[in-house]
Amino acid sequence: MRTMYFDCFAGASGNMILAALIAAGVDAVALKRELAKLYIPNFELEIEKVDRSGISATHVKVAIPDESKHRHLDQIESIIENSTISETVKERSIAIFRRLALAEARVHGIDIAKVHFHEVGGLDAIIDIVGSCVGFELLGIERFICSKIHVGSGFVQMEHGKFPVPPPAVAELLAGFPIYSTEIEGELITPTGAAIISTVCESYGQLPNISVEVTSYGAGTRTYEDFPNALRVLIGETSVETDEAKVEDLMLLETNIDDSTPQVVGYVMERVLDLGANDCWFTPIQMKKNRPAVLLSVLCEKELKDRIVELIYRETTTLGIRTRSVEREILERETVSVKTSFGNIDVKIGRRGKQILNVMPEFEQVRAAAIAAGVAFSEVRDAAIQALNSSAFAATN
Q1: 211 band by pLDDT with thresholds 50, 70 and 90
Q2: CATH architecture of 246-330
Q3: String of b and e for 373-385 (b: at least 16 CB within 10 Å)?
Q4: Domain range annotation of the chain
Q5: 332-395 is classed in which CATH architecture?
Q6: pTM for the whole thing?
């Protein structure tokens, strides 16, 4: 599956995404030809190579006549719907603007139809967003993943006043996405950049297993002395996710023990898990001469078999260990951090392909938050699950 990975070590903006796409191989002439179908008069794409702390990057500026017009969502949708660009580009562009409008509506406590776009309602922002969607289509991107997002720090001056970074709409757009801040001052992730990435990305986290074909850099406008203000994108092939179960080939090691203390077998469990065993458990059993005993079971990778067998012989009184190969079917797993009124809680997610089948908030975090807040464990747990269901993660899964 042709995949694009957004490496947001310096955040992202609409023009950074557009520039990275051009640097990755989008033909500027073809891009301008498609954007002309928006029937926006007198605009130009000013494309240049720039240096960002020693990294060669592409910078794009959308040059348009001066305008002070602020638009509502329906006006922007009308511009896009009345164009002759492809239906895929139309749908994705409108989805991005609707997500942006929903974030603004939540921040201001108003109906989505009443959202009055300021900076992102300008023609330059429309061209950035639609142009990015055109670029995705021209490059044949089928899947989008992003890294943790560097948001910057400090304050930013906006239409309604001075706000901390990330500003309210950006924070809302990135709900459910991992973000971080450093000493780099300024707004690194803009509303346009946040809207594009949070709409198209189906997942986030570390770089996936990918056969990289292209790496490119889209430059931000600001420059820093020792910090490359650029968005890096990597494009290549990743494996196609299916709904087929993932199966692991493991070893199951078992032995019966009837002459050891609970302390010893408990210690053995700790040691085999420390060695990297997948699981270890005890089962009460009855042995010959009616002796109560314990069945020690260890599930491990085949490479660990010899080390764990040696440990069991050394630490217990057993004289023999049964071993056999087993298959274990598992769900794909990932962890998402969600924001609740009790603080951030990690939620473990189990999925088969793209279908989420199991979610479970991290027990220790829920326990600590419940004790700190003086509420029931279930209240914190349910709040974390509700936060996940209403997050951007759930919206893209």
Answers
A1: very high
A2: 2-Layer Sandwich (3.30)
A3: eeeeeebbbebbb
A4: 2-237, 246-330, 332-395
A5: Roll (3.10)
A6: 0.62
